Amino acid sequence: MFYMIGKTIDGYKIIKAIGSGTFGHTFKAIKGNKIFAIKILKPEAMSNEIKSGGFKRFEREVRSLQKVNSEYVVKYINSGIWLDSEIEHYFIVMEYIDGVDFNKYLKKHRTEFIKNENLMKKIFSEILNGLYDMYKQKIIHRDLKPANIFITHNN
Question: Which InterPro entries does UniProt cross-reference here (predicted)?
Answer without folding.
Answer: Kinase-like_dom_sf (IPR011009), Prot_kinase_dom (IPR000719), Protein_kinase_ATP_BS (IPR017441), Ser/Thr_kinase_AS (IPR008271), Ser_Thr_kinase (IPR053235)
